[in-house]
Specification:
The chain is an alpha+beta fold and about 325 residues long. It has two domains: about 210 residues, Endonuclease I-creI (Roll), CATH 3.10.28.10; about 100 residues, no CATH class. The chain contains twelve helices and nine strands. The strands form two sheets. The protein has a five-stranded antiparallel β-sheet with strand order 3-4-2-1-5. Helix 2 packs across helix 3, helix 2 runs parallel beside helix 6 and helix 8 packs antiparallel against helix 9.
Length: about 325
């Protein structure tokens, strides 16, 4: 089953900006988050590794279109992960490595000084590569391609990008927040996760990285969810109202029967007697329906007022009966 994350990455992997500065911003993020550097002075090489073919193709395309240099591509099979493939894209020519690092603003003191480096991540990108809004969009897109994922929106709303240190996490968070998206950071084992939880905010994120088809699919899921939730709330509310009505009706009937069996309806005022008889005859009727059965008809508040009076009479009769019972019991005890 194709995941939502894969759909998003397939869509944005086909986006290659015509502006060189935007391609450099996207590459800067992909290299910083997904590449390693090896070697020492005059012998550096860069290896970009991914398990996603579309990500590998996007990286390859960006490098070729921007620098027109050769890249070695090695494909390995990871038998531990259901025979999934691992794509390694390696740039071996030292002058090409330096050109790329300079253009993407990823040169640091160790590389400048020609120090020996073994399997090390590249540094945090310079803010110079994200001066324009279009470059910020491209940078975020590159970050998501390299290390991002989105949960199935039918189950939950969660988008995250995993980075190796807090410095990179805070930079990425700040860039995302320039688009009014409330990105947060949490540590996870040895890494840091920049994440977005709200469905509407994830929609905004997809708009930023220009994944418009995925955005529409997510919006459709959100609309269906909201409709389903609204219907459920309405059904629950109606069920609660029905339960409330049934409980109230049962109490009213109980009080009316107690009055009938205690003193009869003849002792009641005419309006109270009419509503008492109607309630017994129509136990499931609403207050409005009971009011419409009367001649002349009365409103819900009038019916409710009369039923409350009947309830008060029944309560009074119960109290009177209890007092009388207590008096009889007291006299019996005295005689004993």
């Amino acid at each position: 089953m194709v995941s939502f994350s894969k759909d998003v990455k397939e869509e944005i992997s086909g986006l290659v900006s015509g502006a060189r500065h935007c391609r450099l911003a996207e590459l800067s993020a992909m290299l910083s988050y997904g590449a390693k550097i090896y070697g020492s002075k005059n012998r550096y090489l860069i290896r970009f590794q991914t398990e996603n073919l579309v990500v590998a193709r996007k990286y390859f395309t960006l490098i070729k279109k921007t620098f027109n240099i050769n890249i070695d591509v090695l494909v390995k099979t990871n038998y531990q992960l259901r025979k999934s493939r691992i794509y390694n894209l390696i740039i071996r020519d030292n002058s090409s490595v330096i050109r790329i690092l300079q253009a993407t603003k990823l040169m640091d003191d160790e590389i400048i000084n020609g120090k020996e480096i073994s399997n090390r991540e590249l540094s945090r990108p310079s803010q110079l590569v994200v001066q324009k809004n279009c470059c910020k969009r491209a940078f975020i897109r590159g970050a998501f391609l390299s290390n991002g994922s989105i949960s199935n929106p039918k189950k939950s709303y969660h988008l995250e990008i995993v980075v190796s240190n807090m410095d990179k996490a805070e930079q990425l968070q700040s860039i995302i927040q320039t688009f009014a998206i409330d990105a947060k950071i949490v540590s996870r084992k040895k890494n840091y996760v920049v994440y977005v939880k709200e469905g509407s905010q994830i929609v905004d994120f997809l708009n930023v990285i220009e994944a418009h088809v995925a955005l529409m699919n997510l919006e459709n899921v959100r609309i269906l969810k909201e409709m389903r939730n609204s219907i459920n709330r309405q059904v629950n509310c109606e069920a609660a109202n029905i339960n409330k009505t049934v409980t109230a009706s049962s109490k009213q009937i109980e009080d009316i029967i107690y009055i009938r069996d205690s003193i009869g309806f003849g002792e009641l005022a005419e309006g109270l007697e009419d509503i008492a008889r109607l309630r017994l005859q129509h136990p499931d009727a609403t207050l409005k329906e009971l009011g419409e059965m009367l001649l002349p008809p009365i409103g819900k508040s009038g019916v409710n007022h009369r039923l409350r009076k009947l309830s008060m009479i029944a309560e009074h009769l119960r109290e009177h009966k209890e007092e009388k019972s207590n008096d009889i019991e007291g006299n019996h005890n005295q005689n004993s």
